[in-house]
Amino acid sequence: MDLLELANRVVIPLATLTLTGVGIWFTNSYRRKMEVGLAESRREAYADLWLISGIAAPARLDAKGVEGHLSSEERSQIWGLMTDWYYRDGNGMLLVEGSKTLYLNAKNNLVSSTENLKPPGLAKAIREELSLANSGEFDDRLRGILSIKQLSPLRTQLKSDLSIYGQTYAESLEPHEVFFLEHSRVDLRSRAWKKAVREARLDDRSQQKSERWDDPTQSIVLPVQTAVPFSALELLDPKSKPGDS
């Protein structure tokens, strides 16, 4: 075997393989560097959004009771700050899919009319659950507490995006809250929501049990209605706060 044939059969393929390996290493290294940079940018942007939404912390219900609800002026202020945040420095592009939809819906619900609450069907779900009239605007107190209950899950989801797992969303989710999250593309199977979903299922089973008729020949389970889990007064009760996020 002469030198030219050796080069064609061994040296050149070996060199090609080496260069390919080096190229893959540099590509992966660059990708990892970009991912680290993106994660840091997301962390900083999320921290700013966390601060903006801090005015809607559930702790204000602890301190002030029913009067701790967000006023219409406060909701408008938060809406403006969240809108500015979204477009500043491209922060909105850093939101992952579930968090982005949740963010947009929670922001919309700060100022929209009752019938335009998002996701579509939310107002109907709340009316049925709280046995409210089928038309008309929700009062300011109810809207203010609903916004607190929607911004708190947003902060929980932001922590999940950053793989920050301290205390997860620990409170049992009410039916309208499950509706809000599911239709905002939040993965309720994730670690952040596992406990809350489990508690909600236990509550639902308890509800079904309470609706079972005692019959000497058979047990009949009535359809569970969404109007019975809790009253509007219970929603306004600070004891039913959505965790501490």
Task: Summarize it.
This protein has 245 residues and is an all-alpha fold. The chain has helices at 3-52, 59-64, 72-87, 97-111, 122-130, 140-161, 175-182, 194-210, 232-236, and strands at residues 212-213, 220-221.
Write structural notes for this entry:
- By secondary structure, this protein is an all-alpha fold.
- The protein has one domain.
- It is 60% helix and 2% strand.
- The chain has nine helices and two strands.
- It has a two-stranded antiparallel ribbon.
- β1 and β2 (220-221) form a beta hairpin.
- The longest helix is centred in the first third of the chain and has 50 residues, at 3-52.
- The protein is elongated.
Write the layout of secondary structure elements.
Layout: H1 3-52, H2 59-64, H3 72-87, H4 97-111, H5 122-130, H6 140-161, H7 175-182, H8 194-210, E1 212-213, E2 220-221, H9 232-236
Antiparallel strand pairs: 1-2
Helix pairs in contact: 1-3, 3-4, 4-6, 5-7
Which labels suit this protein?
single chain; 245 residues; mainly alpha; two-stranded antiparallel sheet; 2 strands; 60% helix; elongated
